[in-house]
Amino acid sequence: MTANRQIKLSAYLVGTGMHTASWRLPGAQPGSSIDIDYYKRLAQTAERGKFDIAFLADSLAINEVSHPNILNRFEPITLIAALAGATSHIGLVATASTSYIEPFNLARLLMSVDHISKGRAGWNIVTTRDLSGNTARNFGAEEHLEHSFRYKRAAEFLQVVRGLWDSWEDDAFVRDKESGVFFDPEKLYRIRHKGEFFSVEGPLNIGRSPQGHPVLVQAGTSDSGQSFSAQVAEVIFSIKYNFEDAEQFYRSYKRIVAEAGRNPEHVHILQGFSPIIGSTEAEATEKRKQLESLISEDTGISFLSDYFKDIDFTGYTLDARADELGLGELKLAKSDYRKHQPVIERENPTLRELYSLLTGAFSGEDWVGTPEKIAETIERWFLGGAADGFMLMAPSLPDGLEVFVDQVVPILQKRGLFRTEYEGATLREHLGIPIPPNRYTSIHA
Questions:
Q1: Residue from 125, 128, 94 nearest 112 by CA
Q2: Cβ-contact 165, 208 below 8 angstroms
Q3: Are 70 and 56 in contact (CB under 8 A)?
Q4: Residue 58 — φ and ψ, nearest 5°?
Q5: Cα(219)–Cα(185) distance, integer angstroms
Q6: Residue 118, exposed/middle/buried by CB under 10 A (0-12, 13-18, 19+)?
Q7: What is the C-alpha to C-alpha distance for residues 215 and 427, in angstroms, rounded to an integer?
Q8: Which of 51, 117, 132, 355 is found 20 to 30 A from 335 (Cα to Cα)?
Q9: Are 152 and 130 in contact (CB under 8 A)?
Q10: Bridge partners, 122 (sequence order)
């Protein structure tokens, strides 16, 4: 790792927060998931905190047990286009699937937003997990694509998108009024792609942005996901629940990136965390208890019954412990469950706590406490080689983001770990990632 590294920060923006009961808090705005002014304020708060990224997740199907904040929400590419006009520096990353859209459409949408934001856009590449069981049927199919097949398709999808983004050299548009030459045809390229999944002629009807391409983000943790992301991703989103697992993943993944022939310093690993912050340890603990108390029995048990489909929860309440149902000993294929299983075995959470864990609203006791404690945990993980930065997944919004910006960020800045001002204009400049060269320029040189 290079000297003078600085922490990268991303804010995960989702309605009233990651905690499924956050909408019930006294100060929450239950309709915030479709309130553009609310999202603008969130993005502006993150920008005030000098965050690198405002991050928007997505799903393509819902059911009756889906998180309340995703039942009624904006499409993320549309949303970051709106947020681009309300901000001036922060990067804007939208999630989009390679499984349920054509490469040309997505390449055009993302490059348009990259221009609108003047080079601040990013794409969180997903192949789409079918958590609801309804995804394929929303797109005219009966069966969701198999996991390894989705990644094989995604590799070709990305090849097409990146090719389309290079349809024009940066100086192709001459726009000479005197000569009448609008563009140089020798600097326009058709990709003429014919592959296993896609046939795309090109060119794309929009040129490269000030940062060349949108920044590529990926969160795949399976073998297929890691192999894919090591080849293409510039930011990796991971969630580990202790320093040792995070540090091991960091070393392993950086090695995989190097083996793929890429510079590991140009690939940033952000660890997701959901801090609960109070002026004292007792206040933070009380905040956590308040959130947990708002999970209704019906909501919690319904979710867990749907998640652990072969377990009978009849007669159990949310105060029961995981080991009473043998939940830490299961052999589930779900990658997110395998990620949480060590925590379930070690801490034997109540079903109420397990619900928060599985829905991404609790990261463990290291992340519950005062601003100083949270800053110290961040510093230890960062300097100890477990992360290049962090994805703030606040259990409740807007307060979780505001407290972090106002009370944790100044501590990190005082310790020289985080910027006090933006030094560049594009997302690539914030992250220290080079502009990708136009692949066709070198071919035709």
A1: 94
A2: yes
A3: no
A4: -160, 165
A5: 39
A6: middle
A7: 7
A8: 51
A9: no
A10: 93, 215
Residue whose token pair is 């020289």: 416
Separation of first and last alpha carbons in the chain: 35
Which helix (H) or strand (E) is 321 found in, with range? none
Helix, strand, coil shares, percent, the chain, to 5? 45, 15, 45
Calpha distance 38→23 (Å, rounded): 14
- Whole-number Å distance between alpha carbons of 101 and 158: 12
Name residue 344's amino acid: I
Tokens of 93: 């990353």
pLDDT 10s digit of each residue in the chain, 445 long?
555 799 999 999 999 999 989 999 999 999 999 999 999 999 999 999 999 999 999 988 888 878 899 999 999 999 999 999 999 999 999 999 999 999 999 999 999 999 999 999 999 999 988 777 788 788 888 888 887 888 999 999 999 999 999 999 999 999 999 999 999 999 999 999 999 999 999 999 999 999 999 999 998 667 777 888 999 999 999 999 889 999 999 999 999 999 999 999 999 999 999 999 999 999 999 999 899 889 889 888 988 998 888 899 999 999 999 999 988 888 886 766 777 788 888 889 899 888 878 876 777 788 999 999 999 999 999 999 999 999 999 999 999 999 999 999 999 999 999 999 999 999 999 999 999 999 887 665 5
3 state SS of 186: helix
Joined together, the tokens standing for residue 168 give 């024009």
| Biggest CA pair distance of the chain | 82
Q: How far apart are CA 182 and CA 7, in angstroms?
A: 43
Write the CA distances from 170 to 206, 209, 225, 333, 429, integer angstroms: 11, 8, 32, 46, 18
Residue 314 Cα to chain centre, angstroms: 35
Nearest to 417 by CA among 381, 391, 393, 392: 381
Return the residue matching tokens 């705005």.
29
**H or E element at residue 200:** strand 199-200
Q: Which residue has the tokens 């110290």?
A: 376
Angle, helices 223-232 vs 243-259, to 10°: value is: 60
Q: 């989009």: which residue's tokens?
A: 96
Tokens representing residue 285 in the block: 């603990």
